[in-house]
Sequence to fold (84 residues):
Amino acid sequence: MIYIRYAQILNMMFVCLFYSVGIPILYLSTCIQLILTYHIDKYMLLRICRLPPRIDGIVNKIFLNTLIFMVIVHIGVAIWVLGS
Fold:
């Protein structure tokens, strides 16, 4: 379950960073989605799940490396869109 959630969050952030130069409202939309995701996960963890899922540190490292890649792609797309 946690791996699926990581993938969903990365997907939201990648779409936001890729298209937000041309559509700035995506920053607000992604912020609202991340806040909702946080509260839903918090509720699920505290009320529904008995034990939190165990994950190793490699998942977090992959997540952070992907975020760095997404920022580089965002800068590239911004230069391309705003430079035209």
